[in-house]
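User: I'm preparing a small set of examples for a lab meeting where we compare how different chains pack in three dimensions. I only have the primary sequence for this one, and I'd like the structure in C-alpha cell form so I can line it up with the others. Please keep the answer compact; I'll paste it straight into my notes.
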Amino acid sequence: MTENGEQEGPKSTFSTYMAEGDQLFYKGEYVKAIESFSTALNLQPDDKNCLVARSRCYVKLGDAKRALQDAEASLKDNKEFFKGLYQKAEALYTMGDFEFALVYYHRGHKLRPELQEFRLGIQKAQEAIDNSVGSPSSVKLKTKGDLSVIHKSNGVHPKHPIHSHKKHPRQHGQKVPKIEKTAKQLLGELYNDREYLEKLLQDEDLIKGKIRTGENVQDLIEGCISYLDTRTEFWQQQKPIYARQRDRRLMQQQWNRAFHKPTSNPGRYCETRQEEIDAAFSAGNVDSSLKMAHELMKAVHTMSDKVLLNKKEVLGNLHSCIGNALMDIGKMEKALYHHKKELEFAKQGDQTESKSRALDNIGRVYARIGKFQQAIEVWEERVSLASDPLEKTWLFHEIGRCYLELKRYAEARDYGLLSSEAADETSDMRWQLNAIVLVAQAELKLGNYTASVVHFERALDWANMLQDDTAIEGIQKALREAREGVTQ
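Assistant: Understood. Below is the C-alpha cell output for the 488-residue chain.
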C-alpha cells in the first residue's frame, strides 16, 4: 500500500527485474541493483544467474560474506557452474582468502580455459599470495645460527609462540622493527587501539572475567587483535605501503581544499558533499544520506546565486538524491514530490541531463504505485530526450509493459517492437530477450497465436544463448499455450 492507501501496481516479470538490476549495476548503483535482484529472487528463489549477479553487487560494496553466500547458493545444484565458480573465487579474494580463491580460479579455468577472467584471477591471487609470503625463489636457506632447537625427532620447538600477542619490550635506543612500522602505517589510528588491547591482556584479573553474554574477556580481546592483524596483512597484500602513502597525501589535499575552506569555493564544497551523500546511499546508509542531503540543502538555500553560480543545478541534484532515498524506503508520494522539484529546476536551468533523470524517476514512481497512464505520459516525454539506443530500449519496454497492464495490447505490441529494434542496435541479449517476450505476450493476448509462436520461439533462442534456465522454462510454458491456440 502507498501512503495514500492506494494499492501498488502488479509486479513485473523476473526477466524485467534482472534486466533492471543489470542496468543499475553498470551505472554503479549497486544498492538499487541488489534491490532489483532480490525482488527477482523472490519470484525465482533458486535462479543461479540472479544469485551470481547479486553476489557481484555485494563484492562491489565490500560485503564479501553475503557475496560468498550467494555464490555458494548458485553452485548448490551444479558444482561446475562456471559463473558461480568465478564469483566464489572473487568473494574469497575480497575476504583475503587468497589461497582458496586461487583454487576456485583454477577450477574455473580448467572448465572454461578460453575465458580471460579466470586467467586474470589466477594471476592476481598468486601475486597476492607472493606479496604475503614471498615467492619460493626469493627464499634462501642458510646453515648459520642456533640449530639447537632441532631435535633428533625432527620436531621444531620455537622458543616463543609464532602468533603470540604478547609484546616484547625493546631496549632503550633499539630500532622499531620494520614489520611493526609497516603495521603502524597501515592501521593508522587503529594501531593505538591495538596497543591498548595488548596492555589489557597483561591485566590477569581482567582477562579472567566474562561479559554478559558469557564470552571470556580474554577471547574477546584476542579476537579483536587477531582481526586487526588480519586486516593489516590484507591491506599490505592488496596495496604496497608506498602506494597507500601516496593516496593518503592526495586524499589529505582534497580534504583541505574541500572542507577547510568551503566558503572560498562553495561550488567545490557542494560537489564534495554531494559525493559523500552518493557514497552513503550506495553503501546502503539511506538514513545517513537523507540527513546529509537535507543539511546540505539548508546550506545551499543560504547561498546567493552570485556565490553559488549553479545553485539551481545543485538543488535539483539534492532533490533527486532525496527522492531516490525515499523511493528506497517505500515513501512513494514524498519521493514523487522531490523528483518533480528536480524536474522544475531542470526546466528552469535548461538542463537536459537532469530533466531526463527526473522524468525517468517520476515514471518509475508512477509505475510502482500502479498509475500506469501517468507513467506512460511521463516516459513518452522522456523518449524525445533519449539519444542512446539502450535508453530507448528500456523506455519503449517500460511503456509497453504499462500498456500491457492497462490491457491495451496493440499499443503494448507496438512499443515492444520499438524496444526490440533499439535493442538490436545495442547487441544487448538480455534486453533483446525482454523486448521480444513483450511482443509475444501482447500477440498472445490479441489472439494472434501464430505471430505469438514465432516471437516466443525467437525469445527461446535468446534465453538459450543466455543460459537462463528460468526464462527458458517460462517461455516454453507460454509457447505451449500459444501453440494450443494455433491448433484450435
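A couple of notes for your slides: The first helix runs from residue 14 to 26. Residues 5-10, 134-178, 239-248, 250-263 have pLDDT under 50 and may be disordered.

User: Perfect, thanks.
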